[in-house]
Amino acid sequence: MKKTIATIRDVAAAAGVSNATVSKFVNGTQRFSPAVEARLTSVIEQLGYRSNPMAQSMITGRTKAIGLSVLDITNPHYASVVKGASRVAQDHGYTLLLVDTEETPERERHLLETLSRRVDGLIVYTRTPEAELDWLMALGRPAVYFGRPQRINLPSVASDDELGAFMVTRHLLSQGHQRVGYMGFSRSLRDRERMAGVREALAAQGLELTVFNAEAPSASAGEKLCSSIVLGRQPLDALVCFNDLLALGFMKAAQVLGFKVPDDISVVGFDNIQFGHFSCPGLTSVDLHSERMGAAAMRKLLATIDGQEAEPLTVIDAQLVLRASTAVRN
Amino acid sequence: MKKTIATIRDVAAAAGVSNATVSKFVNGTQRFSPAVEARLTSVIEQLGYRSNPMAQSMITGRTKAIGLSVLDITNPHYASVVKGASRVAQDHGYTLLLVDTEETPERERHLLETLSRRVDGLIVYTRTPEAELDWLMALGRPAVYFGRPQRINLPSVASDDELGAFMVTRHLLSQGHQRVGYMGFSRSLRDRERMAGVREALAAQGLELTVFNAEAPSASAGEKLCSSIVLGRQPLDALVCFNDLLALGFMKAAQVLGFKVPDDISVVGFDNIQFGHFSCPGLTSVDLHSERMGAAAMRKLLATIDGQEAEPLTVIDAQLVLRASTAVRN
DNA sequence: TTGAAAGCGCTAACAA
DNA sequence: TTGTTAGCGCTTTCAA
């Protein structure tokens, strides 16, 4: 009863045609006589034949799979990126190979090099500086990059970090905040842009920025940094955090230390992860539209694979989402 | 300068050996004379030869890839499961094919059937009742199932939902809660067990359980259900939620409605997602060790693929994590 | 220790 | 519309 899996030859034999015919039929490459069509349909049904994707890939050179690497899948921002990419991939009949690099650059390269042979294209979310990314190009696979590449020539999707930072800072200023701090994460390639946006808005008012740097883009890093900020020598009215995770951690710790947000200090983050809605106070955030970023990257990659000329850089707009962690200061 | 990718034949030719020799060398299947070894090493290095995984898979029937399907990657519980599975896979040289079924059963089957030919094994997190899962067995691939299968014969990994529910309920009772409610999500296969655990603890004290059912395992569903619970006819001391997302949503809405947690009502959830720590009050939760579940499933699958006889069911223990959403009631 | 030969399951010219 | 014929890049007997 246990029959070995049916191959194209089994089908051809059973239907009394050549396997080329079966191949063409299965792939809908051609029209057929009703007789053959009927026989093939029924035989395939009967044998439960499904073409072997490996054999197919080997010969066509296309795998119908896309490799996606992110830095940490448990960070809701990346989870959303994956969501968006996954949805588009599925809609186009592509499979997603996920790589969680866990913020480990050494892993990243090796994993991606291995992966590259098994996929039609790559989407890469990395912290590795462009200067060290030549191997990515050398892979010879279509790839989409998250960020604004200067040096490497890869189609990219970026959030409008600088504008987002500028916007939220202007908002803070309009609320009467004067002494603004930035809790950055310098290892991120986005850190610079966000800081620049904040600085720019501040500079327009002749204000200086106080900068702190977190050791990780995580809530616990935000918690750790809190005391040195709220109890430090430079009192702050407002703190712009590199991301929501840091902001959440900071707020929690601040509260433990007896500081009230936003009464004592306003806090904002980036990414607008859903959990910013459930902290208290709710977290004001710059929505970078993570899911849309993932979807846009996948669409772009698929277009490139299709031979279409995709625009080099897609910028997803940022949007300020106001919640209770910021308030008017008198 | 643009050279096409090197094949095993190129290497064989350049090194003056047969491609069988190259194959054996690359796979370390055999020992070689120093001369051959040296030549091969240098030629491979020079040509940058890497064996084509597709061709390899086609012939050996092994892909070194595992398919993992989850219900919603933006739910931190699943993100953690993926994290755990991904880590173990990477450590063993396996690649992860991720499927986000988005809670859509129709998608699930099709995606998994497609996937099954490209992977050596499958890990499936599903809501589909076992009775409708015969196709999964028919795929003929090693598979690991999340849950406690009754009917189908698949190695599985399960959390100890019933015990976890029992524990947290006993805790609530010991704090003096009497009128306990359960916000369930009946579509989940885990819902029954959690409810049973709560019921059992309550029954020991002769208490009844009030049950509500959410339309989704999400924060917004929790928000929606809130008013009918806190403003309903049956006042509650405590609410056990199917998961942390529901609990978070509920708490937020309760607060908006002017109810205080835990003063007016204690709230607990399941999964112990990290964001339960940042809500306020912090959310008491049953930690099901999501990441460990993912890792355990992957380990089990890999063992099965390796031909080892894995135990049929691995149960990951539950642990109560106390935070401020529960308090002694007088 | 090495190589020759026979495929794995499929597609892609090209003929018929 | 259908079939023939070559492989794709690799592994695997089996013989040398």
UniProtKB/TrEMBL annotation, chains A, B:
Coiled coil: none annotated. Residues 6-60 form the HTH lacI-type domain. It comes from Massilia eburnea. This is LacI family DNA-binding transcriptional regulator. Keywords: DNA-binding, Transcription, Transcription regulation. GO terms for molecular function: DNA-binding transcription factor activity; transcription cis-regulatory region binding.
